[in-house]
């Protein structure tokens, strides 16, 4: 019924105006040769009679327009609320994604730092072990050389020095 209200108001106005026009011309004769005063009186009569009918049709059309606008605005309001909720959810998801990316980057940085520290410590320990081995080897060689320098002629002293060095070397193994 609401959708046909505009059509119904126009139909009522047209039918009402047609009936009034028909009654007028049945009661009074229509002549193109009528005086100007007769035309003015006829126009005044139609204006007075048609104005309330057309006013009523205009009010119905205005009401229909207002109701359609209100329905459209209500629908737009609902759509805007839904869009706002979607936008807020999107913003929250984006914030969560950003926080997760920051967290993942920090984990990667810490992992790289930890791995680099472990590798650095391992390399330093290997380097230290190599230096200690080198120092032990050099100290053994220096002891042998020192023994040769002290006891160049004594073969017994040489054998004793070698035995000492062997005992010392075997004790580290």
Q: Secondary structure elements and their pairing?
A:
Elements lengths: L4 H23 L8 H115 L4 H18 L1
Helix pairs in contact: 1-2, 2-3
Q: Mean pLDDT score, rounded?
A: 77
Give the termini separation.
Answer: 107 Å
| Oligomer type | single chain
Helical content, roughly? over 70%
Shape: rod-shaped
Radius of gyration: 57 Å
Question: How many helix segments?
Answer: 3
Uncertain runs: none
- Sheet/helix structural class: mainly alpha
Q: Provide the succession of SSEs.
A: HHH
Largest sheet: none
Beta-strand portion reads: under 5%
How many strands appear in the DSSP assignment?
0
Transmembrane segments: 7-25, 45-63
Coiled coil: 77-113
Keywords: Coiled coil, Membrane, Transmembrane, Transmembrane helix
